[in-house]
């Protein structure tokens, strides 16, 4: 177990290093941020001064070494646009993205598992067929377009829910979160539903496939032969076993929800880190883009690690020492 | 390389069985019919579209943002309305469909070829090569496609070729993993042993024997991936990172309508979205049934 975690951490450092080299090198080849940042009427002398102030006059490898040196002490450079540490800007936006991702995941799980269970237990009933057809639709609907339709229907036409921005926040353990008061939740609802739709389809399909596969196995037959009630067979025996792959997928999808928030946040003008990175790409705010990617890559690796450990806890047959680190 | 795209030679009986099993699902047949119509429309775009949306001389700014059903000054009816430049939405969608399908299929075919060869080679050669390839695949699949594509496009810039590069980079790993696991099963079968006993070279065995027999699962992954690629391209174009405005794909058309959506001018965003949805839906319906038919674990 310890060896496994240590190996994964070593691998994490390697992946972070490679990502930073690729992104740093790639981003620093395109465009000139100075052109965007300075006043359009600025003369060459002023531009040169700005270039020097941002450290862009040095050769690329020197810039990278400077970046690495800063990174080791927890500083990923200053944002060109905000003139503050890039990490600070990102961490400020992070709670907004995380609460959106969690809300979306909760919606997907709470609706997805019961619907998938039903579709798996009664595969030939009309309702099950409707659920499955709906899940194919949910798979096929492009997220950003669904977002537009949600805005069109619930904000523009019906006027029920607000379509842009984040509502008032409350302080929860030092974090500014908006989903714990009704007004804030109203703002979060549309983006969260938008983000949840794809995952909901995925969870329905996965649950159904698992139920159909597991209910043919001997342990279910045995439980039924013992005369256990239907509720107990499904609620305890079946559910316990289908939860194992579900936990894995839900965990891994949490990361992908955070990444996909880039799209949803752009549509709903949600001030999270996804919107921040899109804006930063267009403003050529390189330190923020690099820092965002490193933060997200790190979060991803962390999530994968937690899922792997959780998996071995849930399923005693899996031993981490046998999983390739 | 060209041998890869040729479908596995099927004897008549399995082909018939395949057709019968595929036709068992009415939804899949509807999807297939829809897909044929969509591809035909995209191919025949210059002959079907009432207007050439790229010909700026034909556009009249006075016709900008007309609602569906409005009539142009020259008597043409805009059945789906017009966009901000007075472009007929119906024509723009047909041409946009062409771009979207082209990008999706081209990136899919390139990624399949690349991934399949690498995956099968990894299974056949084993050892160091397999370890390194599969480790790269694992790491890459750990990250969501949109993130990888976002980084690449931020660096590469805009353009059809660039978005294809980004989509291939995102997709090859899926094919490589599928091809490897399929080839690992095939590798120990007798016909491969026979080919080895005949003294055939590694490349010949991989390309002519292993690859064709590993194709069915790749076709299933391929259909799903093409749908993914089309959706991903649309998303990236919507974010302003994909295609240049000179070649508007469906995603870019939707993005153009986004700004006027709040004022109730829904048609500029909604109709290209419907076209996109139908395309992806048709591919997914076909892919779903293909998976059931070609999956040996579910064979009835």
Give me the secondary-structure topology:
The complex is a heterodimer of chains A (325) and B (300).
Chain A (H helix, E strand, L loop, with lengths): L1 H26 L5 H5 L6 H10 L6 H13 L13 H36 L4 H15 L2 H15 L12 E3 L2 E3 L4 H33 L3 H8 L4 H38 L5 H10 L3 H29 L11
Antiparallel strand pairs in A: 1-2
Helix pairs in contact in A: 1-12, 5-6, 5-8, 5-10, 5-12, 6-8, 7-8, 8-10, 9-10, 10-11, 10-12, 11-12
Chain B lengths: L11 H11 L3 H18 L1 H4 L21 E2 L5 E2 L10 H37 L1 H15 L3 H12 L3 H28 L2 H8 L4 H12 L1 H24 L11 H12 L5 H28 L6
Antiparallel strand pairs in B: 1-2
Q: How would you characterize the largest beta sheet of chain B?
A: 2 strands, antiparallel
Whole-angstrom Rg of chain B: 22 Å
- State the end-to-end CA separation of chain B: 35 Å
- What's the number of helices of chain A? 12
Oligomer type: heterodimer
Shape of chain A from CA axes?
Answer: globular
- Outline of chain B, from the CA principal axes? elongated
Count of helix runs of chain B: 12
The number of distinct β-strands of chain A equals 2
Plain-language structure description:
The complex is a heterodimer of chains A (325) and B (300). Chain A is mainly alpha-helical and 325 residues long. Chain A contains 12 helices and 2 strands. In chain A, helix 8 (182-214) crosses helix 10 (230-267). The mean pLDDT of chain A is 81. By secondary structure, chain B is an all-alpha fold. In chain B, 70% of the residues lie in helices and 1% in strands. In chain B, 46% of the residues are buried. The model of chain B has no long low-confidence stretch (mean pLDDT 81). At the A-B interface, helix 1, helix 6, helix 7, helix 10 and helix 11 of A face helix 6, helix 10, helix 11 and helix 12 of B.
How would you summarize what this structure contains?
With 325 residues, chain A is mostly helical.
Task: Record keyword descriptors for this entry.
heterodimer; A: 325 residues; mainly alpha; two-stranded antiparallel ribbon; 2 strands; B: 300 residues; 12 helices; elongated
